[in-house]
Amino acid sequence: MRLLLVVALVCGCRGASSAGDDVDSGAMGDAPDGTGCTALTPRAMTPETFIGPTGLEARIGALIDGAQHQLDVQMYLFTVQTLANKIVAAKQRGVAVRVILDPDEAGNNNVEPIFTSGGVTWKNAASIYSFSHAKYLLIDHGAAVIMSMNFNVDAMNNERNYGMVDKDPEDIADLQAIFEQDWALANGQTATAANLACTRLIVSPTNSKQRLIEHINSATSSLDVEVMYVSETTVRNAIGNAKTRGATVRVIILDPMDPAVTYFKSLGIPVKTPGPFYLHAKLLLADQVAFIGSENMSFTSLEKNREVGALVFEPTAFAPVKQQFETDWSASTTVP
Fold this sequence. Notes:
- The protein is built from ten helices and 18 strands.
- It is globular, with a radius of gyration of 19 Å.
- The chain is α/β, with parallel strands linked by helices.
- Strands 2, 3, 4, 5, 6, 7, 8 and 14 form an eight-stranded mixed sheet that branches. An eight-stranded mixed sheet has the order 10-17-16-15-11-12-13-18, with helices on both faces.
């Protein structure tokens, strides 16, 4: 069991409240900087979405190879040594590299010796979170790569996952602030809290539960769910309520014995288990908006972990994610 690390958090304020607290932007409207304050605030640049496992390792490798100045990585599970070697190569060509890993996966990760011998500075996440479950990269202050994928062998070979490359400056700045906070905590230092009073990001433990419930509740015509499990009761009920108010709801879930399956089927919601892939996704498609991120639908993930996600609402970025869900739905097996 982790020991709780007590750290004083001092707010660094980008559109902060007067008290300097982390306040969910949904209750605030526009903060003083006027941009990026809700999950659906238009972005300055359209993100690119990508889907695993096909071509995933090559895509991630190319992103790492493209770093020229700075590369920050927060990854829950990291076992793919070829990607670790690419991070070392980035360090050796002069890129400033930092890596945060989850200490509970220390027995499974096999990349720490590669980083250490290659001169890469890495830290285990602080115990202030139940799990450091986020999966993201920050590249040259110009791109944030937000994913449900771990950097493990299964993710590269047979898991269904979704990710996005986000080049919006506000999103990048917010995610960089999250990394700086967690880096300081990992080093046992007093940390400046990432001020998420004005953000598009969906972040645990700050705002994930509220924003994901709002996302589910926004579905008027359709709600498609492709997740490992649904154990958080409020999320489960929100999915059920979408069906009750007339939306077409479909659920792909990993385990046919998941207790949520009985609830969904009692409401007439069709439920399937995945076809020729292992389901690791955390995908929620409400009408024409997709949630992509690391959050599972559990109390711990939404309230206790470090997690990062975002909504994809731009049509060209949403379309391939929707198409993949349709393909997965056709290939999956109906739970009787």
